[in-house]
Amino acid sequence: MSVSKRNNNSIFKTFRRLALGTCGRIGSTAGKYLLLLVFLMYAAIQQQSHAQVASAKAANALKPTPLAIGDKIPDELWNLPLQVVNHPQGKKTITLSEYKDKLIILDFWATYCSPCIKNFPKLHALQNEFGDKIKVLAVTQEDTDKITRFFKKGAGKEHTYVNSVINDSVLLQYFPHKSVPHIVWINSNGNVLNTTQAEDINQSNIQAILDNQKTQMIAKVDIDRDRPLFLSEHFSNDLQLKSYSIFAKGYYAGLPSGNKFKQSKDGKIYGRQMTNASMMNIYNPIIDELFHKNGEQFNSKRMIIHVKEPALLYVIEKKDGEYEKYNLYNYELIVPEEKADSLYYYMLANLTRYSDYIGSIEKHIVDCFVLVRTSTKDKLKSKGGKPKTNFTPTHAILINRPLGHMLNMVNGDTITNLPIIDETGYTNNVDMEMSGIKDLTSFKKELSRYDLDLIPAKRSLNMFVLKDK
């Protein structure tokens, strides 16, 4: 803080010299008014500086204990100075006590969180609708510079109405969470009413709270994903977890949508979890690993789906841009470290045992295209240099990369619904550039420049087959 004080003293001395010099030049009355103006400017700077210092000192003095649903907000939190931006009255710091008689909704957010930003207009509209009955207050850990840039030049320039706490380190400790948006509800009695996702902030829930009625909110209780999912906190460290599995249908608000690994000290993966994921989001990485173990590349064209309702296998988007949650799952399997090499085989077997589907990898004779060379002249061999891979829907560049990279790109594209198999036998790295790729015909034309062609054929291939039970 000494840097701040030196800066303010320097500013004051400069203003004082300017004022005194001006007084001598333009007369005592005008000079006095100018001097008064300078002192008011200095006082404002000092006030802002003292507020920031007070906020920092108050934060450092606190040793917050996390608050649970139903807990009372402690006095020290009510009176804690909080640094803010975009305050309706231009304040630089506030305290929660200013809103003590209202329903307070804390919206924890971050500039990298697109769902958080997407929620801003809805929260602003609700604030306007309910007026003085509620206070929606955004909260972020991010610093002044980053937030200033965000509201001036970033995605936030259209949302400068967002009144937000910044540089937060204390509220996060009172209301710990793993993901954003994270919403904390504090009722007018000063109790933590709930912690939820942003979608629970709506007109009906707010009105129900104000009317002391039951809401439709679902509590968001975050889970530490470094631990096995849903394992009791009373599981002793003295116990050695040898195996663990859970498969649950339904969305869990305290978990993100994604994957996480458990890795041994020597780098072996002996556990994996998929949270708030569709069945295909669970199957895909498992099958990808099993194909890889067989020296093959898995893609959507290597699947045979025989189920009555295939749409349920995937994330279902709704009209408002959100997605359905009833067909999502949480799955984790941990095996003994000495069985790490079999993890993905066990995962597939586990899903067959407990899900509504039977998944297997089987040999099938299928229609496909085979990539072949049309001459013995080598037009592919790389000249070396820094490896580069760049694919767009109509353009592809490979520099000093294996030919398989191009096949992986095409197999993940919609140029053809059939799998493409490499039968060139070419093992060197290649340099290739193809443009104007619109369909199979244009793709074949580009391949011909390198003496390559795609030939329709039937081959016996490993396929992932999924059936209803």
UniProtKB/TrEMBL annotation:
<keyword id="KW-0201">Cytochrome c-type biogenesis</keyword>
<dbReference type="Pfam" id="PF08534">
    <property type="entry name" value="Redoxin"/>
</dbReference>
<feature type="domain" description="Thioredoxin">
    <location>
        <begin position="67"/>
        <end position="215"/>
    </location>
</feature>
<dbReference type="InterPro" id="IPR036249">
    <property type="entry name" value="Thioredoxin-like_sf"/>
</dbReference>
<keyword id="KW-0676">Redox-active center</keyword>
<keyword id="KW-1015">Disulfide bond</keyword>
<protein>
    <submittedName>
        <fullName>TlpA disulfide reductase family protein</fullName>
    </submittedName>
</protein>
<dbReference type="InterPro" id="IPR013740">
    <property type="entry name" value="Redoxin"/>
</dbReference>
<dbReference type="InterPro" id="IPR013766">
    <property type="entry name" value="Thioredoxin_domain"/>
</dbReference>
<dbReference type="InterPro" id="IPR050553">
    <property type="entry name" value="Thioredoxin_ResA/DsbE_sf"/>
</dbReference>
